[in-house]
Design brief:
The chain is an alpha+beta fold. About 65% of the residues lie in helices and about 10% in strands. The radius of gyration is 34 Å and the shape is elongated.
Length: about 325
């Protein structure tokens, strides 16, 4: 890329600037040649005025010529600064002079490589993350959960033989152990979405809505279209994780009383929306409340994630996942 830019700098753009400047100086020379103007020493006032006017005209023509030559590059620089690398398939329009078109082509190729490399890196990182989630969930369920279940059985056996004065403490310990087992089960369900594997995306999202609503007291309605079709394991997992993170954020941070989840298929894309009537998202929201992680997951399937505050209050998260990848 660097060599191409250097060739463009030395090539047609260089020739254009040189020819424009040469044209200005040729015109100035011709003007001095064909006009009766002369310069004496010392310079007279009228001659000085002619020189100043001529120099000003040369500078104005040169500035106009250079501005015309470099204007496409200035526009290209502004466009480059506005490109969002977190929005897949966003490319600059190939237009303008030959050197600008070549530069835009090189820049778009660079975006293609960066996007591909970032997607593959995110895929490896998220696959490792999911694997670690499953491992931790399995250990919590098989090891810690089993140990606490054994402790609870021992406490129940002890309760039948405990003195009367110790029985309240034993019962309180039993209740605390049951609460610990329920909390571990909750963490396991969050780490390992078994419902997604066993029941499919629609039923898994319905179960997620029911669980979050029960745990938080938040009223959550959901509408999941039945015509989603086969989205693929990777797309379904991203949709589920984005819905899980969004609903968790609503329950923890939004101070909302109502929320709504919708999932529908529109043309060649599937769209997930989660909205609430809370206090809205902080600004800027890109690195807050797990939004960066959701964006990384969205890039994995070439989807776009839009977070916005609603004019009526509350916030909305929209995931648009293409189906023609």
């Amino acid at each position: 890329m660097r060599s191409q830019l250097m060739r463009m700098t030395r090539g047609s753009l260089y020739r254009r600037v040189f020819l424009l400047n040469a044209a200005v100086f040729v015109l100035a020379t011709l003007a001095l040649t064909v006009t009766p103007a002369t310069i004496s020493f010392p310079v007279e006032a009228t001659e000085a005025i002619v020189l100043v006017v001529g120099l000003g005209a040369i500078l104005v023509l040169n500035a106009f010529a250079l501005r015309t030559a470099f204007a496409p590059l200035d526009r290209l620089t502004r466009l480059m600064s506005e490109v969002d690398l977190q929005q897949p398939r966003e490319r600059l329009e190939v237009a303008g002079t030959s050197e600008v078109r070549e530069l835009v082509g090189v820049f778009n190729d660079m975006l293609d490589r960066l996007e591909t490399e970032r997607r593959e890196s995110s895929r490896r990182a998220l696959a490792a993350q999911e694997g670690e989630r499953w491992r931790v969930a399995q250990e919590l369920h098989d090891d810690v959960g089993q140990v606490l279940t054994g402790v609870l059985l021992r406490l129940e056996s002890l309760a039948g033989r405990a003195p009367t004065e110790l029985l309240p403490d034993v019962r309180a310990t039993q209740d605390a152990t049951r609460d610990a087992i329920e909390r571990i089960s909750l963490v396991v369900r969050q780490l390992r979405p078994e419902a997604l594997t066993d029941l499919g995306l629609a039923k898994a999202l319905a179960a997620l809505v029911t669980r979050v609503s029960h745990e938080s007291g938040l009223r959550i309605s959901h509408e999941i279209r039945p015509d989603l079709g086969d989205l693929g394991d990777e797309t379904e997992l991203v949709i589920y994780r984005v819905a899980q993170e969004s609903l968790t954020n609503v329950a923890r941070h939004s101070q909302a009383t109502n929320a709504e989840l919708t999932l529908e298929r529109t043309g060649d894309a599937v769209i997930l929306r989660i909205r609430d009537n809370g206090v809205g998202l902080p600004q800027p929201p890109q690195t807050r409340h797990g939004i960066l992680g959701m964006r990384e997951r969205a890039m994995l399937i070439e989807a776009t994630l839009l977070t916005e505050n609603l004019g009526s209050g509350g916030a909305q998260v929209t995931l648009t996942a293409p189906l023609d990848r």
